[in-house]
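Quarterly update from the structural biology core.
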Amino acid sequence: MTKFTVLGAGGFIGSHLAASLEQQGVTVDAPVLRGADDVLGAVLQRDLGHVFYCIGLTANFRERPGDTVEAHVCLLKRVLERGRFASLTYLSSTRVYEGAATTAESAVLQVAPDNPGHLYNLSKLMGESLCLASGRRTRVVRLSNVYGPAMPAQNFIGSVLAEAASTGHVRFLTAANSAKDYVAVSDVVRWLPQIALQGMHPIYNVASGTNLSNAEIASLLRQQGVAASFAEDAPAWSFPVIDTGRLVQEFGAPQHGLADEFGRLFEGYSRHGYSNRENEVEDE
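Predicted structure, tokenized:
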């Protein structure tokens, strides 16, 4: 029987992935990791099967640079060196395409060590390189901005919905034409096992393949009766469209979209509030 281990199952994506796998009736190990001792101890003493490495920091990486490198690189190194597994899928990020000429998986990437914001990109790329140079069966998944139920407070869409539900008004601090790619966690957890077991390439972009602007999000808010405005002289921050050709060709197009699901997500926040869980063990 195929076994999966989700490292980082206490986070947003990891928890959804573990739940999805369990619903499929497969064997799932979702250990609670509280530090390096857990990784070096009980986890590495057992057969892990197919591993999803979901450990990471996102919004708080600037305040915790050492912990970011520990999560994205150092713990990963120990698993690659000492773990007993059939495959390992490493969750990276499409943020690494910042400044690149294209967003194809083969793109030559740009990083600047003197840019504090690039510590995240550098550590993710080091993790990617470590996986692909390890000589073991590994896959790298570059995730776009993931949304879904129980989003952490640091998630942009989660913070927008939380503010909308609690105050009835959202004031954007980035310009109306700012745009990002948003991908549903339900699509992500459907694709991840397929990539791990059947993927033909070492790196996959996992994204919707289309960008949604702040102006479009503001329009969706107004449809829910929420006022939306933009700060004066708000900076524009737009990311290039993510190339999902490889993903779609092998595993099919996304089945969900933020615009279509926005009303349901907002209703959930209006009824239940939002998760204030620290996003310390899961990539966005």
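The domain at 3-145+182-206 is CATH 3.40.50.720 (Rossmann fold).
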